[in-house]
Amino acid sequence: MAEIDKKTAIKTTASKRPSRAKKASGRPVFVVDGARTPFLKAAGKPGPFLASDLAVAAGRPLLARQPFSPDAFDEVVLGCVMPGPDEANIARVAALRLGCGKQVPAYTVQRNCASGMQALDSAAQNIALGRSDLVLAGGTEAMSHAPVLLGEAMVTWLGAWMGARTAGARVKVLAQLRPAYLKPIIGLLRGLSDPIVGLSMGQTAENIAHRFNISRKTMDAFAAQSHVRLARAQDEGYLSEMEVIYDTKGNFYDADTGLRLDSTAEKLAKLRPVFDRPFGKVTAGNSAQITDGAAWLILASEDAVNKYNLPVMGRIVDSEWAGLEPAQMGLGPAHAMAPILKRQKLKIEDIDYWEINEAFATQVLGCVEAWKDKDYCKQELGLSKPPGEIDQARLNVDGGGVSIGHPVGASGARIVLHLLHVLERNKARRGMASLCIGGGQGGAMMLEREGE
Predict the structure, then answer these.
(1) Predicted confidence band of residue 9 (pLDDT cuts 50, 70, 90)
(2) Predicted pLDDT of residue 451
(3) Rounded CA gap, 447 and 420, in Å?
(4) What is this structure's pTM?
């Protein structure tokens, strides 16, 4: 088990933090449409699409069916954690490729796993404040293209090599080159580690399993259920937000490729732990998959809805960002969702459906357990009583990151978009979308479907 400071684990600032006033609502913010690519599981080599390619592939059919031209947007906001070297301010790159025009500004946001949700929140705030009326917002990530870097020693050597002007100087510099300098730094592995507490994200998940005594059997059962639910969603046509995409070789992709139809709790139980060998519980099978994908939503003010006669999928009612101990970062959703319920004067049963991103099976299960735990809610969340137990029949009903995948920049947008489809399909009113965030944060967004 990854070691944590037990004093730090139980120490809380939540109960000491002054209560936050209800956020000014401003103008209502509507979601009118959205689309995503299939989420493509990394296969040990760079995938067929860069992050900007994925954003464009999701955006083109979405914009083509709108009654307004792409240059009608007031701005474009895109979440991305690891854009490539040719994708600086990837939001602007995607906006121009999508035909939004030179006069539509665009900016990129980064909040680790919740970058896509941060893009939506940033766009929603501008609409609520009256600064924008129509915004294209979402997230993209090509995790299979994560950079492989050179270490500082090699970079220093290269600088000396470039500065050597004579043959003798170059011979001298060449003699200083050491094989160890060539050892690569895997950007993805570094990015999935917390530099403050020195733990990988998987080790923080082990901490949660330990804290709430979540068994390996329970984790594997949850993971298998994620695949079953995704398979059913594909069979029943519940993923209508997905667009078919094509690569430059003529291949097409029309489904999430991380689905394992033969996945069962019994088969998952045979996998070895990855992050805390040999005694841990977190495996590749009960963790989110390394994936490439993108998702967009179109956000609009009431003026824009009326101007273009746009259909309304739902409304963004509230959002919250929370901080917590980085070594227990997976509990972020419990911290972010609780203030929204309090502000909106709602109970757990008032939320019809939930989407909590499945970074790890144990992480979602830990959030469920945290909201049932009186001591945790009092000490960590500053609540007088626990909110209660989230009904798992209404949680991630069509699968989640374990089966669909978790392209870190895109997942926040995907879960919001899909939650709106779930609400529509079930003629339900309210939904809550949330993610844990590497570094010890949580993000949440409450949605309402109009007319119910």
Answers:
(1) very low
(2) 65
(3) 7
(4) 0.91
